[in-house]
Specification:
- The protein is mainly β.
- It has a single domain, classed as OB fold (Dihydrolipoamide Acetyltransferase, E2P) (Beta Barrel), CATH 2.40.50.140.
- Helix content is about 10%, strand content about 60%.
- It is built from one helix and six strands, in the order ββββαββ.
- Strands 1-3-4-6-5 form a five-stranded mixed beta barrel.
- About 15% of the residues are buried.
Length: about 110
């Protein structure tokens, strides 16, 4: 039996310009979010739309591409893996975040948009 993989593929629009930082040691990281939309019909047959926001983190070359080419509203598709992290906030309370580490991204906007 094959092991299950932690793999995510999403198609959506950026909700903000990527926030890019250079870390000690020269490594680049970009944080941004995308919105995915699902359209469906409810029990009365009326069209409904639901938006879900996803937090993304890209490292190295992917972060540099995000910084150079992506902006709020850009349409992209990404592949990556889900990760969870936790930290203590300034009040000493444990906080949790689920995000997607981007392995690859494809820009879908037409040139000049």
């Amino acid at each position: 039996m094959n092991a299950l993989r932690n793999s995510v593929r999403l198609l959506g629009h950026l909700g903000e310009d990527p926030k890019v930082r250079k870390l000690d040691g020269g490594r680049t990281v970009a944080n941004f979010s995308i919105a995915t939309n699902e359209i469906y019909r409810d029990s009365r047959g009326e069209k409904q739309s639901e938006t879900t926001w996803h937090r993304l983190v890209a490292w190295g070359k992917q972060a540099e591409i995000a910084e150079k080419y992506l902006k709020k509203g850009s349409e992209i598709t990404i592949e990556g893996k889900l990760t969870n992290r936790s930290w203590e906030d300034k009040n000493g309370e444990k906080q949790y975040m689920t995000e997607i580490v981007v392995n690859s991204l494809l820009m879908l906007d037409k040139a000049g948009n």
